[in-house]
Amino acid sequence: MNRYAYVANNPAVWVDAEGLASIGGELYAGIGGGLTLGWDSCTGPFMKFKAGFGIGAGASFDPGELSPGRGAGIGGHGSSYGLYASGQAQALVLGWSGGARIGNAYDARGNWRPTGPEFEKPRWLPSVNWPPTKPKKLGLSVSVGAEGALF
Description:
It is a single chain. The protein is an all-beta fold and about 150 residues long. Helix content is about 5%, strand content about 60%. The protein contains one helix and seven strands; from the N terminus they run E-E-H-E-E-E-E-E. Strands 1, 2, 3, 4, 5, 6 and 7 form a seven-stranded antiparallel β-sheet that branches. The longest helix is centred in the middle third of the chain and has 4 residues, at about 70. The two termini are about 25 Å apart.
């Protein structure tokens, strides 16, 4: 096991100062879903899941993904849910992705914050696989459905 893969085997130059990471996958053959497991040093472990209709498959590793709660401005523990529509065609850091989502996020005390609607403009991803903190994704999928997260 390579303990320094997240910094391209060079911990003197590259650092993971925020302690972020996630790994995930999705599979759609009509009905399908996806699961992402991650760690955020500020909020701890998190899990994102989605279920819906679509076609395709994908896998990802993102060394810089924030917890869904931290991304929504909650910062602590809680949950979120919503609806999504997305499409992606990616090979490592080269590809296309786009989508939209709407939902709500709740903190551990039951306070809620609407999250959306958010529209991710279709974009081409950078073709350079450097620095090592860039997300690595491989897949082709188009899907719509419901999503949720525990953080």
